[in-house]
Amino acid sequence: xxxxxLVFFISFFSSFFVLSYSxxxxxxxxxxxxxxxxxxxxxxxxxxxxxxxDVHWRTTDDFxxxxxxxxxxxxxxxxxNDNVRLTAGYTxxxxxxxxxxxxxxxxxxxxxxxxxxxxxxxxxxxxxxxxQRFKRKVxxxxxxxDYNFNYRLRYNFxxxxxxxxxxxxxxxxxxxxxxxxxxxxxxxxxxxYFDNNRFFIGFxxxxxxxxxxxxxxxxxxxxxxxxxxxxxxxxxxxxxxHSLDLRRxxxx
Length: 252
Hints:
Layout: H1 2-22, E1 28-44, E2 49-60, E3 66-81, E4 84-95, E5 104-119, E6 122-139, E7 142-162, E8 173-185, E9 194-206, E10 211-223, E11 229-245
Parallel strand pairs: 1-11
Antiparallel strand pairs: 1-2, 2-3, 3-4, 4-5, 5-6, 6-7, 7-8, 8-9, 9-10, 10-11
């Protein structure tokens, strides 16, 4: 238990250090408001294998005035057991045009380990994801046929606390606190090894074993490739989680 708490606070304070340091150096910060909608599906097709699929729609400018981004992740999952899973997948992302940049697609293979632990009165959920990012280059305000490439490492820690009873189960609302930090790597990364940090606080409700909802506030602080430009995003986030189990049930 102590090591999970330690990992959480290391992630939190490392993010705090980055934010504090950014106050010292000369910078330009753009603040924006967004709406993030997401649907997640995990379908188990056998004792060992399953399918990961999620899709996201994001809008910006007073939350909903402009299209911002479309993202979909798809992958094949290997179940070490019910609470530990390995996934390899592919992401397609499209960032919609604004007044400065044209619309830009991105292709992103990724690999992930996901693990969950249930305790008396709370649950932890963590994942570590390694991404390879291929982003279309922009020159003179136009897309080219070439790509920028870099690696990115993501670590997420979530703490879920039921608001009644001792565990997360159907018909029980729960409190969520979550933090995810993103680190860049690769020869094209020069000024923004720190990519962004996403802090979320909100509530969840498990309607059934198959369907869960999350709603809350997220702050996203991102450093751009220039090193001195930052985005501070205040977002409303609503996610739907859908789990299916297609394994044959034993006939008794």
